[in-house]
Design a protein that fits this description.
The complex is a heterodimer.
Chain A lengths: L1 H20 L7 H6 L3 E4 L3 E2 L6 H6 L3 H6 L3 E2 L2 H10 L5 H4 L4 H7 L4 E14 L4 E13 L5 E12 L7 H11 L9 H14 L9 H7 L1
Parallel strand pairs in A: 1-3, 1-4, 2-4
Antiparallel strand pairs in A: 4-5, 5-6
Chain B lengths: L1 H19 L7 E2 L3 H10 L6 H17 L3 E2 L3 H11 L3 H14 L4 H13 L2
Helix pairs in contact in B: 3-4, 4-5, 5-6
The chains are: A alpha/beta, B mainly alpha.
Chain lengths: ~210, ~120
């Protein structure tokens, strides 16, 4: 039994260590050269069957990007602005030429998001909430891709800690009912955390993070 | 001796696992901003704009009490809400504040202010 414990620990340790070592670091040369200060997030292209996916994802992206130290344009305000200017859907918004974005919004870079899979997957005894897709950061000055990553978040119903009590407390605290039964924002936040904060392939810190930590 | 190996491995494993978890302090006060974004696009009026304005104002007040910077986008979002309930002066003040806090927003906010003047 003792031997087994030893073996199990050794194996876990090895897996953890090797897991860290085999990740190929991202080539950050374009991002370093461009050093964007501000990022505009365009409402995602949605290839999933869930119609709400684009705007639910949009409600999870400001915190991770801004906490990385970038100025993030107010996503709902920008969306309203684009709709008022004759672009009613994310598909059309994703086709705006970069020079127009630079001219009217003044963003250094645009984050393009594609969602491929979104929502609850029911299995026999449990259900998973899944968010899958990819993000790509593009410079409005040069058109170069500065950074990109797959996004991949799974929230398992067994490991889900948002108990009914927690939800109720939350409801009282925030008075916001809509997002409580929807688990996809949480899965999206898991996906974002992994993509943006990955040690060797995550997004590099931006100017506000760097000034704050110095 | 065997015991100490197990202990050592245990400690290493724990360190490896916890090392992956991030534990940094946030740069900004966010309040319910992201919930309000969700609400703005899916809520279909389940919370009145006045209530949303109140929530953002509360975030701004608590941020100043805690000496924290208000997160990017909050003043601009507040400006949009004020504008939607016809409070043009407060809308302009909030938009201007977004630009003062974050000069990166200048082109976008100046455009909004200009258009709001034009429709007056």
């Amino acid at each position: 039994m003792f031997k087994n414990t030893l073996l199990a620990l050794l194996t876990t340790l090895l897996l953890l260590l090797s897991g860290c070592a085999t990740v190929q670091p991202y080539d950050y040369s374009a991002l370093r050269e461009a050093a964007p200060r501000s990022i505009l997030v365009i409402p995602p292209i949605n290839n999933s069957i869930e119609v709400n996916a684009s705007y639910t994802y949009l409600s999870t992206i400001s915190v991770p990007l801004a906490e990385k130290g970038y100025y993030v344009f107010p996503v709902s305000v920008v969306d309203t602005f684009l709709k008022q200017n004759g672009l009613p859907t994310p598909a059309e918004m994703n086709a705006i030429p970069l020079d127009k974005i630079k001219e009217h919004i003044g963003a250094d870079a645009v984050l393009y998001v594609t969602i491929d899979d979104w929502g609850q997957k029911f299995e026999v005894f449990s259900s998973n909430t899944v968010v899958r897709g990819s993000v790509k950061l593009v410079s409005t000055h040069t058109g170069k891709t500065l950074w990109g990553a797959p996004i991949n978040g799974v929230l398992n119903s067994d490991s889900d800690d948002s108990s009914i009590l927690g939800a109720l407390v939350n409801a009282v605290a925030t008075q916001i009912m809509g997002s409580i039964n929807d688990k996809t924002p949480k899965a999206a936040r898991i996906a974002n955390r992994q993509a943006f904060n990955s040690k060797k392939r995550g997004l590099l810190p931006g100017p506000y993070y760097l000034t704050k930590k110095q | 001796m065997n015991n100490s190996i197990v202990k050592y491995l245990l400690v290493m494993t724990v360190l490896c696992v916890t090392g992956c978890a991030t534990n940094d302090q946030q740069l900004y006060a966010w309040g319910q901003y992201e919930d309000l974004i969700y609400e703005f696009h899916h809520g279909e009026g389940s919370i009145e704009p006045q209530k949303q304005i109140q929530l953002l104002q509360a975030t701004i007040e608590s941020a100043s009490k805690r000496n924290k910077k208000v997160a990017p986008g909050i003043y601009a979002h507040l400006g949009m809400l004020y504008s939607s309930v016809g409070e043009a002066d407060k809308a302009r003040a909030a938009l201007t504040e977004e630009r003062n806090q974050f000069p990166e927003a200048k082109i976008f906010i100046d455009g909004m202010l200009k258009r709001s003047q034009a429709t007056k």
